[in-house]
Every structure is written in structure tokens, then in C-alpha cells.
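From: lab user (bench 3)
To: helpdesk
Subject: output format question, protein + manganese (II) ion

Hello, I'm new to running complex predictions and I'm not sure whether the block I got back is the full result or only part of it. Here's what I submitted:
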Amino acid sequence: MKRISLTQHLIEQQREHDTIPAELRLLIEVVARACKTISHAVGKGALGDVLGTAHSENIQGEIQKKLDVISNEILLEANEWGGHLAAMASEEMETIHPIPNRYPMGEYLLLFDPLDGSSNIDVNVSIGTIFSVLKAPEGMHAPQEKDFLQPGSKQVVAGYAVYGPQTVLVLTTGNGVHCFTLDREMGSWVLTQRDMKIPEQTKEYAINASNSRHWHAPVKRYVDELQAGVTGVRGKDFNMRWVASMVADVHRILNRGGIFMYPADAREPDKAGKLRLMYEANPMAFLVEQAGGAATDGARRILDIQPEKLHQRVPVFLGSADEVARVTEYHQK
Ligand code: AHG
Ligand code: MN
Ligand code: MN
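Helpdesk reply: Thanks, we reran it on our side. This is the complete output you should expect:
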């Protein structure tokens, strides 16, 4: 079989759809290269002294793992000098990171969750990186946080890498979702799945069920119906999967269908769930929609939400369109 590299794929997409100008292609290739470096560090594990805690806290008040910090540094360093970006923002940094003056400033903004699934690092379970690309507003000179506060529908690129048994990169530039596998010997990303589509029929759901006593009524009703199985209103049995790395759960759903939920609940009424809108929910929602699925916060399409803060949280329901529609409808009743 002829192998198509990430570069060749991006050039062909540009010829076909005219959506990936050279600067954007550079951006995607630099992010992909950074993910390759992170994958290498992840793969070293204890041998590379990358496991365990960094003894620091991020803006969300979460203890940072060494790999959270290392992955953030890798992405920052890789993306600073190419001239394709105006600024970056990350789960691991309180404020935005404008490109230093010594480098030319580009027209894109990059957001990332450098290491998703931190609780799985030390136990050798799949983890990943999530990223989202926006265009800087017209006429912007010195980038500020407000320049990032654009709804997800404005994303020009979204993607994630999974560092699992294989390292894969899943990408959309608005023309379908494509998956690349890292050839570790050659050091290259090879196109292995073109135009991923979420299967419509599903028998799988993903939610952290240990929180069930805190769930609001619509979520409880929806999950109760799934659990009632073949004798309940759904008339079939469902299976549950929860990796606790959103990248791995979403990757399964893109391949095999299903629904992923991280709702808000009654524990902290002011907290809109756990996941962050701008660098977790938005990129995943863009990918899922491009693969024929849907993503809501229980009421609205995630991509329509006007962000108010960089680190804003949002409830997430995403995956097979019919399932997302059903649980969203329960919220509306
Ligand atoms: P992060 O490691 O970037 O903080 O994200 C972890 C997220 C997400 O990947 C996952 O789905 C969820 O947290 C797991 O939450 P629980 O610990 O509640 O299972
Ligand atoms: Mn995350
Ligand atoms: Mn993270």
C-alpha cells in the first residue's frame, strides 16, 4: 500500500479544498513534531525520569505531574520561533503566552491541553495531547486573552494525539477527520484512516459512574435507561467504558461509536463540570461533528458557546448523534 505522509496529506488537502495555507501547514507540522517528542518522553517512562509529580500546582489548583510540565514546555518551545503564531494558551498556564519579540508574529492562536489523562501517566494507561487553532482577530497587535475568546465554530484546526499502544494523531481542518499513525522507526506520521465516521448505532457509553449520586435528574434518567438494558425502554444492553483520559475515550468513540459524558453535578453548583471549554471540549466537539457526531453541554451545541474565560469549564455530552440528542432532550424537558 502506498504510504501517505502527514505533509503529503496536508498539501493534497490544500490543493483540493484551499483551506490549509503554508503557514497553517507549518503550524500543524510543528504541533505534530512536538507530539512526537512528547510520545518519545512518555515512552521512556521511569527510564527517562518523567513519571511522578512536579510538586507544583496549575491554575485549576491541580497538582502538576512532571509530564504535564514537560509536555507544556515541548509545545511552547516547538511553536515559538516558526513565525506562524501570535500567541499560545495552555491548561498549564494561567495567562496567555505571546510569541517573544525576537520572533516574527503570525496570524494564528494555538490552545492546548499538553497532557490529557494525567492520572493515567504513572500507571501506563493511554494519555494524550489536545489542541485547537484559531485565527487572531483582524488588526490585533499585542495579543490578549480576549483575542482567544472565540466560539469553537471559529476553530480552523483541531486535533489530538494518543500515546497508547500506538501513537496516533487525529486531525481536522474542517474537511473530515483523518488519523495518522507514528512510524517510530522512520519518525514519520503516516495516514492510516481517512474520513473517520462515528458509527450511528452504539451500545457503549462513558461516564465516571462514581459520581452518580451527585448527578442531576436528566443525566440520571438517561443512564438509568441505558443500564436497564434489554428489558428497559431502550430494548438493548449497553456496555460501559471509562478510561479517564478523554483522548482515549473519544478515540474509541470515533472508531466504534458511543457517547462520552462529563456533566455538571450537584457537588459544586457553581462548577460547570470538570472539562475545559477552550482546549478540551471545543477541539473534541469540532472533531466529533466532522465525523458525523454531535456535542452539547446539555442545552447548547458546544461549538456555539461564546467563551467568557480562558479556563472556563463546561459540561460535555459528545459522540453518536442520536444519543447526544436524547440526553440533550432530557435536559430540555
Ligand atoms: P487532565 O489530565 O488534562 O486534567 O484531564 C483529565 C480529564 C479527562 O481527560 C478525563 O476524561 C477526566 O478528566 C477524568 O476525570 P475523573 O478523574 O473524574 O475520572
Ligand atoms: Mn485534559
Ligand atoms: Mn491536561
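A quick orientation on your result: Residues 91, 113, 116-119, 208, 244-246, 274 surround AHG (ligand 1) (CB under 6 Å). Let us know if anything else is unclear.
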